[in-house]
Amino acid sequence: MRDEGRDDPRPAAVEAELHAALRGDDAAAPQPTSSLIDDVAALVEDGRNLFEAEIAFQKTRLAFAANRSKSAVLAGIGALAFLHLALIALVVGLVIALAPIVSAWGATAIVVGMLLAGAALMLWQVRRSTRDIGDAFASDASPAGEEKAS
Questions:
Q1: Of 4, 34, 61, 95, which alpha carbon lies 20 to 30 A from 43's?
Q2: Which comes out higher in pLDDT, residue 17 or 88?
Q3: What are the C-alpha distances in Å from 131 to residues 34, 119, 122, 138, 140?
Q4: DSSP codes joined into one string, 124-135
Q5: How far apart are CA 92 and CA 119, in angstroms?
Q6: CA atoms within 13 A on the CB side of 76
Q7: CA 63-50-58 angle, 5° bins
Q8: What is the Cα–Cα distance from 49 to 40, expressed in whole angstroms?
């Protein structure tokens, strides 16, 4: 039951092949029009297109990552700047808070001494870490787990 007023979405060639197949007419069966060489050429072309699309995708992804990395670095620098300002405010506040108790010079000496002790602690940690790194590279020749002879 076909509506004559509607357009048929199937092309005429498909319609002819369908009627020929229903009649059992083998002559109307489509013959393969491509050869093995054509198929290989199409495969190579598809591979080239896929490769070019992948390269374009990776370039776009790299550009996106570079843009986001730049934003992250700038935000990190801004956070460190605010942290630095907060620590300066803390030091000034400590000096002001200790001044009535031990005088201005005493408060300054206490805060400077604490900061120098913290710096010495950090330097000791740096020295220990760099020594561990040096030991790791110095023991490259010996198998893992063996102690080096000192």
A1: 61
A2: 88
A3: 70, 18, 14, 10, 15
A4: HHHHHHHHHHHH
A5: 18
A6: 6
A7: 15
A8: 14
| Spatial contact of 142 and 134, defined as CB atoms under 8 Å apart | no
**In the predicted model, what is the mean pLDDT of residues 73-86?**
95
At residue 80, what are phi and psi to the nearest 5 degrees?
-65, -35
What distance in Å separates the CA atoms of residue 37 and residue 70, rounded to the nearest whole number? 49
* pLDDT at 118 > cutoff 90: yes
Q: Tokens standing for 114? A: 């604490």
Helix (H, G, I), strand (E, B) or coil at 30: coil
Decide: 76 and 83 in contact? Cβ < 8 Å.
no
Structure-model confidence comparison of residues 58 and 10, the more confident one: 58
